Amino acid sequence: MQKILVARPIFPDVIERLKQYFEVDWNNGDVLSAEELTRRLADKDGALTAGDPVGAAVLAAAPRLRVVSNMAVGYNNFDIAAFNAANVLGTNTPDVLNESTADFGWALMMAAARRVAESEHWLRAGQWQKWAYDAFLGSDVYGSTLGVIGMGRIGQALARRARGFNMQVIYHNRSRVAPEIEAELNAQYVSKAELLKRADHVVLVLPYTRDNHHTIGAAELAQMKPTATLTNIARGGIVDDAALVDALRAGQIAAAGLDVYEGEPNLNPALLTVPNIVLTPHIASATEATRRAMANLAADNLIAALGEGPNAGRPANPVNPEVLGKARA
Ligand code: GLV
Q: I want to staple 234 with a disulfide (CB 3.0 to 4.6 A). Which of 115, 204, 207, 272 is the partner?
């Protein structure tokens, strides 16, 4: 039997499925340190990760490793150049999380716009004495302009929901999406600068790469409307969190919603001191059904990539398909 490492706690029935094909070393505890991950991968043929960094050093210490299956759509934790150099396949879990993640983008955006978390904290703190005409005035969502940065599958799911809110949708992306998708979403492609200037609610849904580190920093925040909100359901590092704190404090924008952070789970402590921000712990895809679908898809990808099961040799979601069929280097 081939050997695999499941690097994180995961649904036990998915572990049972994997045991039908593999000898499973399961870390059902704390996140593994780089040293521990490297040690436990040394004799493994495959691994199932969820955001654990895998780069050249880890691969070099794991000469049998042929596939790493990430239980996430984002795979910025993989050093793809190192994967390609070693002929190691990476896989991810796209599509199954689109709708749950888009729902959550709306939840954060609306909570930020209407000051849901901020007012709840105030109420819980026993500060509510009377109804007041000017208490927690927010920004309207219905009829406003939604600016989506990153118009991939999740960005499109998010934009599709804007129809019911009678919103104008503008977007920015590496490239324009197909005209029929623009027509279906009633979405207009604009430059990043125009989007920041026009949008009432900016939502970030783009993958994290070196090129888009701090896509939203001090200069970009300064271009936004003082009544606008910023929501990040993509990855930490796309927003300069320190610059966001400054912009919120200075009233450069009205509010923000963050599900992801630079250096998470150790977020910038200044974020906790700003009232007009909604903070959630990287849970945009976290519904029971979606997390189960992601775990099962990650398992399916691993099983297929290691030549087992009904789709042996044909994993559904390779992120570097160029290495398929190549011997481990
Ligand atoms: C979650 O952040 C994912 O990339 O799936």
A: 204
